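Here is one chain, start to finish.
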Amino acid sequence: MGAAALLESYLETLAVERGAATATLDAYGRDLGDWIAHLARAGRDPMTAGPEDVADHMAALAARGFEATTQARHLSAIRQFHRFLYAEGVRSDDPTGTIDAPKKRRPLPKILSEAEVDRLIETARREAEEEGDPPRSPAEAARARRLYALLETIYATGLRVSELVSLPASAARGEAPFLMVRGKGDKERLVPLSTRARAAMTAHLAASAAAGRGGGKWLFPSWSESGHTTRQAFARDLKALAVRIGLSAAAVSPHVLRHAFASHILAHGADLRVVQQLLGHADISTTQIYTHVLDERLVELVESRHPLARAEREDGGSA
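Its structure:
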C-alpha cells in the first residue's frame, strides 16, 4: 500500500472510529502530508522510515522557524499515525518511540533596568517625604509612605507580592537585617532586609498611626476594609507611579520588581543557588530562567579578563 493510501486509511479511521471533526482531519492531513513529503525527498516512505528520519524531520521543522508547540503537534500526529500502522500490522515497529517532544522554552521574564528601578524608588521616596502644597491629609501621606515602603521592601527582598502584602506588623520591629517569611507550601525562609527598607517600614507605620490606622496585625493594612492591602492595590499604585515617571504601565508590576531583584543581584555576582533560596524556589530549574544574566556576565568576564582578549585590545590600540 502506498503512502497516500496509508494516510487516507488513517484519516478514515479517525473520522469513523473516533468521530474526528473536519478541522481536525484537515490538520492531521497537513502535518502528515508534510511528513510524507519529507520522506519522499529522502527516498523513503512510511513503511521504511526510521527514527533518524523522524529526528531529521523535526530538525527541519525547527530550521524552518516553527515554534516548539508546533513541532510537538507535528510529532504527535506522526507518532499516532505510526502507532496506527503498528496496531494494524502494517509495520512491526514504531520509529517514533525514541523521539522526545521538543521542549517549550520558558519566556524570559520582563526586567527593569537598575536605573529604572532607582527612578521608581526615588520618586516614591520623594513623594512620601514631601509635605505637599496644600498640605496632604494624614491618609494621603500614609498611602504615599505605604507605596514607598512596599517598593523598598520588594526590591530589597525579592518577595512574592502575596508574601509582601501579608507581612505582619512585627516584621518592622527590631534591628535584625533579615525577615522570616512564610512562603509557598507553608515553608519558612530568611531573606535580607536593607537598612533603607526597614526605615521605610518604620516611617510607614508611623504615618499609618497618625492617620488612625495603626496598631493592627498587618504591616500593610488595607484602607477600605479589615485585613492587609491587596496585590491588586499595590499593582495599581505601582503602575500609576510608573506612568508619572514616563514608564509604560504594562512594563511594571510587583512581579517585575521581583524579577529585577533576582536579575540585578545575579549581575552583581550572586550565586544562582543563593538566588534560589532567596526567591523561595523549590527547584533550581525555576531559578534558571535568570541564567541569561549569568551568560552575559560570563561573556563580559572573559572579554575583560582573558589574556588573549587583553592582547587583542593592546594590539588594536597600538595600530
